[in-house]
Amino acid sequence: MADKCHLCLLGLISLSSLLTVNFFSSLMYFISSGENVRLSCNNALPNYSTTVELIYSGIKNKDAESHERLSLGSDCSLNIKNITKEDCGFYTCRPFVNDKQLGTDARVSLHVLHVSSSSSQTEISAGRSVTLSCQLYSYSYAGVSCDDWIRSERIHLFWVNQAGVKLTRSDSRYQILFSSDHCISTLTTTLLNEDHNREWRCEVTHRNQVKASVTQTLSRVQSLILIKAAFIKLLLHL
Length: 238
Fold this sequence. Notes:
Layout lengths: L2 E7 L2 H4 L11 E6 L4 E3 L10 E7 L2 E3 L8 E3 L5 E3 L8 E9 L2 E2 L4 E12 L11 E9 L8 H8 L1 E6 L14 E5 L4 E7 L7 E9 L2 E10 L5 H13 L2
Parallel strand pairs: 1-4, 2-10
Antiparallel strand pairs: 1-8, 3-7, 4-5, 6-7, 8-9, 8-10, 10-11, 11-14, 12-15, 13-14, 15-16
């Protein structure tokens, strides 16, 4: 008698019609883009020989085990490598015995923290302004805004410096803005020479516990003035 544990990846299209999904009660995972995550299936059936199938938007993936980023454990856990912002959303583990569902679905939500820069490394230099954007990618559906969600779950998104000190709007060097429409925090500053290899870190906390963080390092900060001065000095010696 073959027992099956179906791991269902519910895509955005299939979720858009499921307005009964309880966004606030699902088990939440926070992960930084580029990292790996293991989503557990808390309702997996014990003491059964188990086969696993992967379903995405209602379509069975027969070659799930060989997928380059996804792998399924015998305990119905889902492993995702090199997380991208597109991986955010709801995931449901659904156990079956003899092709009949046994018990209820175990639903988890995956939230991905991602940082990007307004400038490429070649455009970065002292004296120029740069904007770092930190966004928490989460699946949203009708009736639940980012603002409602973060208030209810006591989620905070903020920037810290290399020493781990939280950056605030009171610091005149930084302009920090937060958009509750898209769960995004931006940090804008004018670069200094000493910002070469400096780290800015964005953190997300859930109920006062740090859940994920992403570090942005600007490694090519150079002063155009110093370069010009060195060039002039070289010419004088010719």
